[in-house]
TrEMBL record:
Highest taxon listed in the record's lineage: Eukaryota
GO cellular component: cytoplasm; RZZ complex
Alphabetical list of Gene3D superfamilies matching this protein: 1.10.357.150
GO biological process entries: endoplasmic reticulum to Golgi vesicle-mediated transport; mitotic spindle assembly checkpoint signaling
Ranges of residues in domain ZW10 C-terminal helical: 1-51
Pfam families (UniProt xref): ZW10_C2
Species of provenance: Nymphaea colorata (pocket water lily)
Protein's name according to its UniProt entry: ZW10 C-terminal helical domain-containing protein
Signal sequence, renumbered to the chain: none
PANTHER family: CENTROMERE/KINETOCHORE PROTEIN ZW10, CENTROMERE_KINETOCHORE PROTEIN ZW10 HOMOLOG
C-alpha cells in the first residue's frame, strides 16, 4: 500500500493543484484504510465463528 501511495505522490503531486492533490490523496487514504479496517473486522468475525463451532 505504501509503495503504491509513493508512486501516486511522485506522479500526481507535480501535476495537480495543491488543494486538489491533498483532497484526492485524503480520499484515497480514507478508502484504503476503510477497506483494511473492514477486512480486519471480518477476520475477527471469522475467528469468533470458528470458536463457536
Amino acid at each position: 500500500v505504501v509503495f503504491v501511495l509513493e508512486k501516486v505522490h511522485i506522479l500526481w503531486e507535480p501535476v495537480l493543484i495543491p488543494a486538489t492533490y491533498r483532497r484526492t490523496l485524503c480520499s484515497i487514504l480514507d478508502r484504503v484504510f476503510s477497506r483494511i479496517n473492514e477486512d480486519v473486522l471480518q477476520l475477527d468475525d471469522l475467528g469468533a465463528d470458528e470458536t463457536l463451532q
